[in-house]
Amino acid sequence: MEIIKSVKEMQRWSGLCRKQEQTIVLVPTMGYLHEGHLSLMREGKRLGDKVVVSIFVNPTQFGPGEDLSTYPRDLKRDFHLAESAGADIIFTPNEWDVYPKGFDTYIDQEKLTLHLCGLSRPGHFKGVMTVVTKLFHMVAPQIAIFGEKDYQQLAIIRRMVKDLNFDIEIKSGQTVREPDGLAMSSRNVKLSSEQRKSALALYQSLQQAQTHLLDGETRSGQLIEEATSLILSYPGTAIDYIHVCDPDSLEDIITVDRPALMALAVKVGAVRLIDNKILTP
């Protein structure tokens, strides 16, 4: 496994791979890797010749008061884990290389960003789309893989790739969970032992919604009310949002008479966690 830090060096490496007609698979991350990331890397090995893992804590997707300064970082640990999963390249650019002095060009979207996390984190997806676009140009992959835990991000990137005619295939990997159901996240390490127990409310509320739906409760409002009650019964929880929506448009739906996305964001202490599930009637 090689480590590349320079944008120009990354582009030179990618150019050589493409001349040799090798398929490059990009797995974008912000580091502090976990099994969810590693599963994407292993899938990348199956899909292509070379797997590039980017590690970059992107400042433009963090808003004022968010956890940019405290986001967990451990590059030595990340290098070891990525190598164990078969990564060929770790790309760790510097902030000033990604956003040089005077940087003033951003990518944005008008509809999908108006829902879910886009409501409570204005500007977040503008930062996500901008850095992903830049990574696509730096790494020049034919395939990029994103996790389904960040469902809205995945939908937005797919829309962006289609709208802007990127010649890149977007693949997704299923949410990887701890044995007790908690979705793996780099932020989980910031939970205390008691908060870790409260964090289980997210997955339990999604499972409860599916059970009640199969029992005949198709009113999204009632499913949300039941999820709210369950989550708030755990200490230290505060709900950012719970929505039941169309999986494609992300617009809220009233009756779950077809597969629907239930997505939620909850603060457990100071840690903001997200999770989702496709509810199937």
Structure characteristics:
281 residues, alpha/beta, Rossmann fold, Pantoate--beta-alanine Ligase, Chain: A,domain 2, 6-stranded parallel β-sheet, 9 helices, 20% strand
Describe the structure.
The protein is built from 9 helices and 9 strands. By secondary structure, it is of the alpha/beta class. The protein folds into 2 domains: 172 residues, Rossmann fold (3-Layer(aba) Sandwich), CATH 3.40.50; 90 residues, Pantoate-beta-alanine ligase, C-terminal domain (Pantoate--beta-alanine Ligase, Chain: A,domain 2, 2-Layer Sandwich), CATH 3.30.1300. The strands form 2 sheets. It has a 6-stranded parallel beta sheet with strand order 1-4-3-2-5-6, sandwiched between helices. Helix 2 links the parallel strand 2 and strand 3. Helix 6 crosses helix 7 and helix 8 runs antiparallel to helix 9. The N and C termini lie far apart (46 Å). The relative contact order is 0.14.
